[in-house]
Amino acid sequence: MKQAKYGLVLYIFLMLPPVITFLESVMAIHMHMQMPLLLIVGMLLAPFFQKHFPQFFGTWNKNGVPGITLFMIIVIYWLMPRTMDEALTEPIVEVFKFISLPFLAGIPLRDSWSKLTGVSKNIIYVLLSMLFGLMAWLYIASPTQLCNNYLLIEQKALGWGFLLLAASIVIYFLSTIFIDESKYV
Amino acid sequence: MFANRKNTIAIGIVLMFGFVLLFVGTDGFSAYTMETARVNKLMKEHPVFPEVTLEDSKERTYPFSEFKGKYVFITFIYTGCSDVCPQLELNQAEVYKRIPQKYIGEEIVFLSISFDPTNDDPKVLNKYRTYFQSDGETWRMARIPDQTELDNLLNEFGVIVIPDENGNFQHNSAFYLVDPNGILIEVMDYQEIEEAAKSVTTILEREGSK
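ok -> structure tokens follow
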């Protein structure tokens, strides 16, 4: 349960107004730090919920597909330029960010990942790297400001961040294919 | 078996939730950026141009209702801007040239509003207008000296202005057309000169044939 405690502490820390202001002042930090950290909060909290509601996770997310689908939907939602803008101007969207990323993306991801088959995992790797690659292209190549609240130059920085993320996933994915981990145990 | 069915139901629920979430979040898959959402909203609501006091390049001060009875073609700028505003103004000049001469000044007035009243006094505006062959009469450049009025207007029209570290501003740009009753009727892409000129001319012709 230590993990759940760390998760809770991190969650509360991220909710502190000065922390929110700081993390959201830079576009790339907003997207590539605050949002992933909220996801991690959910992943840390997952064991707590799995322990208390084993029945729920066991039946409603038996093969992991419902959970990972929910995770993908939430990720796609937060990739849109508009949602990031609205999180800054509309309080209800901001609240939704703090609820959806940990509870509808982080927890389902952790609960689903171990249940997924190898093929499903590969599909997720490919989907995510394609999605992030697409986002990189969108944010780097767009000649116009996509978010009204952030400068064009920040948008480009965000795009390069996406490219790095996509590349990392591709490299990791390839390593899982070509490296047989059992040989190195 | 029973557990598997629940699993399948869960997938259905998740997909439905996802569809609703993305549908609502994009106004029915029509607006993926806040800018599109803003323009769509303005075009739907047609807000009345708020009453503001303008001070133009000829140091004349008058309320916006001075233009009552005429269409007003508006852009928001500041003269210190080095990237998008000159482009915006050049494009505005192109639209100005494409509108039939008989309407200019009679049926329609062009107006560039500065959102940097501290810097853009009448003198600066008077110099700036010459770069774009604005005559200061049928195409006026003006500032809104009252900050509250200015903020209110920018807020009403959803113009978001962000100052950057170099003392510049970045903002979302568009052409705005206000009708003779002071109602915003069109928000146009400032990069589509031909299209903007065509739709403005069509509106003016329709008005003329009444």
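Helices of chain B lie at 2-25, 34-45, 84-98, 122-131, 147-157, 193-208.
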